[in-house]
Design a protein that fits this description.
The chain is α/β, with parallel strands linked by helices and 444 residues long. The longest helix has 20 residues, at 256-275. It has 22 helices and 7 strands.
Length: 444
């Protein structure tokens, strides 16, 4: 049967490498031709309308045009669609029937990434967006002991937030992360484990922690809870000696050269650890995905990148593998009651299944409500003045499910998504990361 007669492909989706070094990649005229082709396919399908705001924006542009087709949409308006895409990849993974190997070869996120890269090359990026994506630089500056109190105070003060909204374009109602002068890397600097690794078929039984910018500067307790849980399960944990941002914020900005610079810092250290027999853990899903998927697609011929991709794990993916091998401590003295668990988009894209839910389900007298829908946060999208209200609209179905469930605890593998839900609930109840909940259940 000819593929041209099929609506979609029955084969497993495949991903082509990102040809970002090719000069043609940055040809705007060529980009617009591809955008028109892709948008025309999306207009005829419309399955992704509920995923993010890119698709409603596109379909409204088409429906409001004179022709009511893509050819009636002004090319300049294409950027509206691009600006609403935060590269969650869910359209490629869960909805689109025309991804490779289908002959239409539709990879919406990669077309959006190409557009963002061209926009960045053209210098059409605001100072705010450059600052928000410079997570290491901001974290180091904001974490200076004298500065950190001022930054946190401004971020929590209504007048300060209004000023920040006016001058920088950061919405006054968005939850901003706190900064800590005593970072995770400082807290774990002298951490040494006396445990002996106990390998299984797929795990080495000892892990090196890639702290991540957010885990290092904003919520160091996540890393501390992870270490406590893993070592309670006999898994020694060490901190990577050197790291910088994984590059995801710069990828979403379209600054691909900055992604390469970050790769050149991180990969040699992580390869050294892998060669020494360590598995790698990244507690934030976006960071794990960066090493598992995005860097391998950008650098398909780099053997070290591929080696790290094969050795990096989501925390609960790792615990689930240990459990499968009979090496997980399932003695939980404390129940959690009702837990509303939001599955982060960048964890879903890793195609590992609901491993967090599976581990939480081992805790006695614990009921879990799984919510598989985008929170609309995306790291920076939800804090920007022009996108915050839309992000909260995207989050509304998630928030409503949490409200209806009336949980004792709620949270997400993505801590920022957890705070987005917290913002929507507006009831004073704080989000709790699943790894922190497991620590509570262990009573450690």
């Amino acid at each position: 049967m000819s593929t041209s007669n099929r609506e979609g492909s029955l084969e497993a989706p495949t991903r082509h490498a990102l040809n970002w070094r090719d000069a043609e990649f940055y040809n705007e005229a060529s980009l617009f031709q591809e955008l028109e082709r892709v948008f025309d396919i999306c207009h005829g399908c419309r399955r992704c309308v509920s995923l993010c705001h890119s698709f409603p924006t596109l379909f409204d542009l088409v429906d409001d045009s004179k022709t009511m087709e893509v050819d009636g949409v002004a090319k300049a308006d294409y950027w509206q669609v691009v600006d609403h895409c935060y590269l969650c990849d869910l359209c490629f993974l869960t909805k689109c029937p025309y991804v490779p190997p289908h002959e239409w070869n539709l990879d919406f996120p990669h077309v959006m990434l190409r557009a963002k890269a061209i926009k960045y090359k053209q210098g059409k990026i605001s100072i705010r967006d450059k600052i928000l994506s410079s997570t290491d630089a901001v974290g180091k500056l904001a974490g200076i002991p004298v500065v950190v109190q001022t930054v946190n105070a401004v971020n929590q003060n209504k007048l300060g937030r209004k000023l920040l909204e006016k001058t920088l374009g950061v919405h006054a109602d968005a939850i901003l992360p706190k900064y800590h002068s005593k970072t995770l890397r400082k807290k774990l600097k002298n951490h040494r484990s006396e445990l002996v690794a106990d390998p299984t078929g797929k795990t080495q039984g000892k892990v090196a922690l890639f702290a991540t910018c957010y885990g290092n500067y904003n919520e160091p307790h996540l890393g501390e809870d992870l270490v406590a849980v893993f070592e309670h399960n006999g898994i020694p944990v060490a901190l990577a000696n050197k790291e910088t941002c994984c590059g995801m914020p710069k990828l979403e900005l379209g600054d691909l050269e900055a992604v390469e610079k970050a790769k050149n810092i991180n990969i040699p250290e992580l390869v050294r650890l892998v060669d020494e027999g360590w598995d790698i853990i990244a507690p934030v899903p976006s960071c794990a995905l960066m090493f598992k998927q995005e860097l391998p697609l950008m650098f398909p011929d780099d053997g070290d990148v591929q080696k790290v991709a094969a050795a990096i794990f989501d925390p609960f993916q790792y615990l689930a593998l240990r459990h499968k091998a009979g090496k997980l401590n399932t003695e939980f003295p404390n129940s959690l009651g009702k837990v509303a668990y939001h599955v982060a988009c960048h964890q879903r894209v890793q195609k590992i299944g609901l491993k967090t839910r599976d581990i939480l389900a081992l805790i006695p007298d614990t009921e879990i409500e799984v919510i598989e829908r985008c929170s609309g946060h995306d790291g920076t999208y939800a804090v920007k003045t022009e996108f915050h209200k839309i992000s909260m609209k995207i989050a509304r179905p998630v928030v409503n499910k949490v409200k209806k469930f009336e949980p004792d605890h709620y949270g997400s593998d993505c801590p920022m998504a957890g705070h987005q839900i917290e913002n929507g609930l507006a009831n004073g109840k704080k989000t709790e990361h699943p790894i922190s909940l497991v620590r509570q259940a262990y009573g450690i």
